[in-house]
Amino acid sequence: MVVGDGARMTGGSSDDEIRVRPLPSPGRPGATAAAMSVPADEASAAAYAQRRARGHDRDVRDGAVLSPDSRSARGSTRAEYNRARRGTETPAHRVTRRAADAARAAESRDAETPAQRATRRAADAARTAVGRDAVTPIKRAQRRALEAARATEGCDVKAPTQRAQRRAADAARAAESRDAETPAQRAQRRACLAALAEGGHDAETPAQRDMWRAADAARAAEGRNAKTPAQRALRRAADAARAAKGRDAETPAQRAERQTDLAERAQARRA
């Protein structure tokens, strides 16, 4: 009795004959051809020829779809090619993964059902209604009424009558200041303002500017700053001489200190 590769002994067979079945294909598990009876001395040759034919067909088939690198790295069977194409994930694994993804999406807020969305929005609305941010119409009306009452009573928001009185008083003070100030006084005041601006005091509020102008007008009306042309010429000459000496001999730090001193003296004169 001869036993070759792929041969299988069956009961009731004689020594002269064996039943040979083809080897199962690695690419298609369980796919075999029908059993055939061959003489015992030809069993090995038949099995070998069958294996070679099957291998040749497989190589020809896979060679058409696989590159040489993939054939050498992953084998040359259709099963290996399919496994490499879809990864190591089997259909059962794919179904499980998709079910888990669907469950996570259903739990998250991004992919929620209309019922879940309605429930979440209702809860958000309830929390907003309870919180301070959501004011009912009655509360809003009460708050606006209180704000209007405080505005009419407060100093920041004046009534139309009070606003008109304030503007009339401002206009009267401005007219008095313009009438009482000579061109020389106006020039001197502007020079003082320029000195203050150089010293860093140019950032004044409108209220401060009005106070300074009123003080200038009062001093001008009293005649303190009204000098004769001769006095004015002497003062300007002295100022020019001091400026020439100071520019030639003073450092930037001394210049800054001098400008600060001038600004302080100008502010003291206004006070």
From TrEMBL:
<feature type="compositionally biased region" description="Low complexity">
    <location>
        <begin position="125"/>
        <end position="136"/>
    </location>
</feature>
<feature type="compositionally biased region" description="Basic and acidic residues">
    <location>
        <begin position="167"/>
        <end position="181"/>
    </location>
</feature>
<feature type="compositionally biased region" description="Low complexity">
    <location>
        <begin position="33"/>
        <end position="50"/>
    </location>
</feature>
<feature type="compositionally biased region" description="Basic and acidic residues">
    <location>
        <begin position="80"/>
        <end position="112"/>
    </location>
</feature>
<feature type="compositionally biased region" description="Low complexity">
    <location>
        <begin position="184"/>
        <end position="197"/>
    </location>
</feature>
<protein>
    <submittedName>
        <fullName>Uncharacterized protein</fullName>
    </submittedName>
</protein>
<feature type="compositionally biased region" description="Basic and acidic residues">
    <location>
        <begin position="245"/>
        <end position="271"/>
    </location>
</feature>
<feature type="region of interest" description="Disordered">
    <location>
        <begin position="1"/>
        <end position="271"/>
    </location>
</feature>
